[in-house]
Design brief:
It comes from Roseivivax sediminis. The protein is of the alpha/beta class. The chain has three domains: about 160 residues, Arc Repressor Mutant, subunit A; about 100 residues, 3-Layer(aba) Sandwich (D-Maltodextrin-Binding Protein, domain 2); about 100 residues, D-Maltodextrin-Binding Protein, domain 2 (3-Layer(aba) Sandwich). Helices cover about 50% and strands about 15% of the residues. It contains 16 helices and 13 strands. Helix 1 packs across helix 2. The mean pLDDT is about 90.
């Protein structure tokens, strides 16, 4: 289970060199031979193409690249310390290897040793043995047998989450150094909520691709709750879309980019098209398409529905969070919906939908970026967020 990337022992050695000032003292500090540490440092510096330390008469001093690299290492080791908080011996995190961490992460993510082995391309016995060894080192159970099969404990889920964050920091350490020299790399994993699919995200991604052709962004759409969990465990870097005003999960932060009004929308040729100041009595005559439960617009929709008096026999609202389903329901019937203006502006401009001039209670949705509170974005990731701001300024200025 060696995995890819630098050896964690060597990374610990690099941090020790900065703290101790010499190779010999650092090697003794982490209980590694000096030749092994020297070789590990040379391998990492060779891969980076630049030295991390200056050799002086007084010892080894970090270069500018070294300071960047060490800052990421410290963040990664901080996550590993948090992963080990529940261990019987918290300090044993120093003895864990990257392959052991990846095995636990896969077993937690996939719900057992067998699916983890498939995901990693390993033998089941290898995954099982590796995870049980981590349990032995930690001194606590990480997986328990239930009537439904093997299940990770809550402690295992915490270990996997923080281990994944640590490995991403160690990976980013290399990119921080190469970014400094204009050789940009790394990841950009984006969670996309419905509004961003049609309005904000595509333009920002096109501009990002022009500036950073060596980075391949990955976009994941889905429900907010699932995307937020992926964000907290480090599988995503940020979420673009509607912000939460009263149920933001702990550990996340938000940046508002703009406030988006809500519109009543229907098909072209709808009986209410072209009327001015449509009131609740007129709105009550038609069936609706409801925003998905839990979506920010749903609260406003519920308030609006409370003001309407539907006649007997009127079909109940159809709930959906799929933009394509919503559009087809509207164009095939006289149904109405309450939706973000930004989400349907292009459909209205193209003549696929029309806005109904309805008398609505005040209501807007804040749209922006959600990230982990402890996120330290790379240079390209910072630039992507700046591009989102630029697109907003240009389209809504």
């Amino acid at each position: 289970m060696s995995g890819t990337g630098p050896n964690l022992r060597h990374l610990s050695g690099i941090a020790a060199i900065a703290a101790e000032g010499t190779l010999s003292a650092a090697a003794a500090h982490i209980n590694l031979s000096q030749p092994a540490l020297t070789q590990g440092l040379a391998r990492i510096e060779g891969a980076l193409g630049t030295p991390l330390f200056r050799r002086t008469a007084d010892g080894m001093v970090p270069t500018e690249a070294g300071h960047l690299y060490l800052a990421r290492l410290e963040r990664g080791f901080g996550f590993l310390r948090r992963a080990a908080r529940g261990f019987a011996r918290p300090h044993v995190w120093r003895t864990l290897g990257a392959g052991q961490l990846r095995a636990v992460i896969a077993a937690v993510d996939h719900g057992g040793f067998r699916p983890a082995a498939v995901a990693l391309g390993r033998q089941v016995s290898t995954i099982s043995r590796t995870c049980r060894e981590v349990e032995r080192i930690a001194g606590i159970p990480l997986f328990e047998q239930t009537s439904q099969g093997l299940r990770p404990t809550r402690q295992a889920e915490s270990v996997a989450r923080h281990a994944r964050l640590a490995l991403r920091e160690f990976e980013q350490a290399e990119h921080d150094v190469t970014d400094r020299e204009g050789r940009f790399g790394g990841r950009l994993d984006i969670g996309c909520l419905p509004l961003a699919q049609t309005a904000l995200l595509p333009e920002a991604l096109c501009r990002f691709g022009t500036e950073f052709p060596g980075i391949a962004p990955r976009v994941t759409d889905g429900l907010y709750r699932a995307l937020a969990q992926d964000l907290l465990r480090g599988a995503l870097d940020l979420i673009v879309g509607a912000l939460r005003t009263d149920d933001l999960p702990e550990g996340l932060r938000q940046e508002a980019l703009f406030d988006d009004p809500l519109w009543v929308v229907a098909r072209p040729g709808h009986p209410l098209e072209g009327r001015r100041g449509v009131d609740t009595a007129q709105l009550s005559r038609f069936a609706w398409v409801a925003p998905r439960a839990g979506a920010p617009a749903r609260t406003h929709f519920t308030r609006l529905q409370d003001r309407l008096t539907a006649p007997a026999g009127l079909p109940r609202p159809i709930e959906t969070g799929a933009p394509s389903v919503m559009t087809q329901l509207l164009v095939r019937s006289d149904r109405l919906t309450l939706i973000s203006a930004a989400q349907v502006r292009s459909d209205i401009a193209a003549g696929r939908l029309v806005r109904i001039d309805a008398d609505l209670p005040p209501g807007t949705r804040p749209i922006g970026v959600t990230s982990r509170a402890d996120w330290a974005p790379s240079v390209p990731q910072q630039r992507f967020v700046a591009l989102l701001r630029e697109v907003v300024a240009e389209t809504r200025g």
